[in-house]
Description:
The protein is an alpha/beta fold. The protein has a domain at 20-198: 3-Layer(aba) Sandwich (Rossmann fold), CATH 3.40.50. Helices cover 39% and strands 13% of the residues. The chain has eleven helices and seven strands. It has helices at 35-48, 63-67, 77-80, 110-115, 123-134, 150-158, 170-188, 210-222, 236-240, 248-251, 256-272, and strands spanning 22-26, 53-57, 91-92, 98-101, 139-143, 161-167, 196-203. A seven-stranded mixed beta sheet has the order 3-4-2-5-1-6-7, with helices on both faces. The radius of gyration is 17 Å and the shape is globular. 49% of the residues are buried. Mean pLDDT is 90; it is low at 11-19.
Amino acid sequence: MIFSHLVRVFPQILVRNSLHMKVIAIANQKGGVGKTTTAISLAAGLAKLGKKVLLLDLDPQANATSGLGVEADSSIYYPLIGEAEMLDKVVSTERENLYIVPSGMDLSGVEIELARKDDHLTFLREILAGVRKNDEFDYCLLDTPPSLGVLMTSSLAAADEVLIPLQCEYFGLEGLAKIIHIISQVKESGAAPDLILGGIIMTMYDGRTNLSNQVVDEVKKHFPDQIYERVVPRTIRVSEAPSFGKTIFEHEASGSGARAYMAIAHEFLERQGDVPVD
């Protein structure tokens, strides 16, 4: 199978580091898999559970920014090119405990600028060192672009672990093999030797189809420790929430999508050895 030579890359998958603020890259080079929706929903879920969360919108499409209804003059572009501190660009959202460094159109050409840097793989890790030292946040989530460029690879190198949203379709399996290969390359480069695959979150699940169940079973077979127990159902409400600038918890708090992402937030904390704040 396409995963057979990749599984051994993460033999210590459940080992956690001792840093207080964890940096989590939400990554999949394939578009349309629910990556940004997962980044927003997990960040919002953790915030509802009392964790102080910083979401970095590293996608030039700025979907995480608009999906949270944020309109700001601040942009992550300037910290990335060394003209501002990351903490100076943090913007509060309307949700308690949830903050974002917004993206914008100015980010669209940044990869060309960053590719010229000698430290293009590690520069984001160095930038985030100041955020870690500040110790203001419990978790920093990186919404990465759906590409294999500098922003994606530097995000992986800056992270403590990676969460992969994976749609329940056959092509999703091929995409999973590719992103895991990229993670292994970043590890082996020495830029992030302790990087781990923290989890695989199955999205767009339709229990009425054999395909969805087959894809979930295939991932369970090869990544039993990494796959999250709760799957995210394919629902219109989950898809349309960002267009209103709302999280799924605000758009349909009692719906299946909100219940799924809250369960995932709880499971995330369990995997971290963390507990919700009362």
